[in-house]
């Protein structure tokens, strides 16, 4: 069908060019006046005058045309219409060079290669179809594909006819979990992860994914990533560098040396918690790491030595305690000691 279309197009162009070819064949002969003058000059021993270089072009030019400057004709308009018409572009992606075509979860964006006034590449097309089909005028473009947090970019030249492009992401996946030393499970609502690009310091790293829940599968470009695991929201933090391989799922469990603790102010051991208490916990260095008001607050603390202050009214009660990795623990502060 494409070949027949081009044959038809050539036929149309030939028909459009025919009148102009006929006009060229019927163009007037150069005027004999110049030759006659030249002959007379030679007979008299004089140098014959040179004819203007543009005489022939001027003689052939149509009224209103500028010699030597192409003009728009029905034929040139037809050619431009054929070469600028949107063409089909088919886009697909693989995780690895020899992997299967990705069936879903892709986002395609196509950009012009020319920057706009702000220095940005203008987006000319977008598709959420894994096997995307777009229509683009012939020309050069930048194609970007995202699969989760994995992404790739490449250029494509769109030509008249069918255009196919298959991108290779070189991606893998990461699934994270955490636990307290001794394989003590951590409640899902108390743990989350941040994923950064690899680097030797925080200044060298870029945030890739934030607040990732445990057991979520995160798709990433192959490479090394710096993972931060948070247990609670105080100071129980563990870091690790993990490698993601193309086409593979990397699973990792990060272990915390920390524990959940709950606080209560009581008049006797094992007694009922007293309400309306202002709580403060300080580290061994004197840094305030936790503050809350209530009868039975709870938090998570990294392994170490701490002091808890319980203020009720004008009276402040305190107690030193130690956090060791293990099961949740209750810390009682007795009023009867004071």
Automatic annotation (TrEMBL):
It comes from the Bacteria. Residues 24-73 are annotated as: Disordered. Keywords: Signal. Residues 28-39 have a biased composition (Basic and acidic residues). Residues 40-63 have a biased composition (Low complexity). Residues 1-24 form the signal peptide. This is Uncharacterized protein. It comes from Paradevosia tibetensis.
């Amino acid at each position: 069908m494409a070949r027949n279309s081009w044959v038809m197009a050539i036929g149309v162009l030939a028909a459009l060019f025919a009148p102009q070819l006929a006009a060229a064949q019927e163009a007037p002969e150069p005027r004999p006046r110049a030759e006659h003058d030249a002959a007379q000059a030679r007979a008299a021993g004089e140098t014959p005058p040179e004819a203007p270089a543009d005489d022939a072009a001027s003689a052939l030019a149509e009224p209103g045309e500028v010699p030597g400057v192409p003009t728009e004709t029905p034929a040139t308009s037809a050619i431009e219409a054929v070469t600028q018409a949107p063409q089909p572009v088919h886009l697909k992606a693989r995780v690895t060079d020899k992997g299967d075509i990705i069936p879903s979860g892709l986002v395609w964006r196509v950009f012009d290669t020319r920057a706009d006034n702000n220095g940005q590449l203008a987006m000319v097309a977008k598709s959420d179809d894994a096997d995307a089909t777009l229509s683009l005028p012939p020309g050069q473009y930048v194609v970007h594909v995202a699969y989760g947090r994995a992404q790739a970019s490449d250029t494509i030249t769109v030509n008249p006819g069918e255009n196919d492009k298959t991108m290779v992401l070189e991606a893998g996946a990461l699934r994270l979990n955490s636990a307290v030393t001794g394989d003590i499970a951590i409640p899902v609502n108390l743990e989350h992860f941040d994923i950064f690009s690899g680097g030797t310091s925080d200044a060298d790293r870029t945030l890739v994914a934030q607040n990732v829940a445990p057991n979520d599968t995160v798709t990433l470009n192959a490479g090394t990533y710096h993972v931060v695991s948070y247990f609670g929201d105080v100071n129980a933090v563990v870091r690790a560098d993990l490698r993601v391989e193309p086409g593979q799922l990397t699973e990792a469990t990060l272990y915390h040396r920390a524990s959940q603790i709950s606080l209560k102010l009581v008049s006797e051991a094992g007694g009922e918690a007293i309400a309306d208490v202002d709580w403060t916990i300080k580290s061994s260095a004197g840094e305030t790491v936790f503050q809350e008001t209530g009868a039975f607050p709870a938090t998570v603390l990294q392994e170490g030595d701490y002091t808890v202050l319980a203020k009720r009214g004008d009276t402040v009660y305190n107690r030193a305690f130690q956090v060791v990795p293990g099961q949740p623990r209750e810390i009682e502060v007795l009023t009867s000691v004071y």
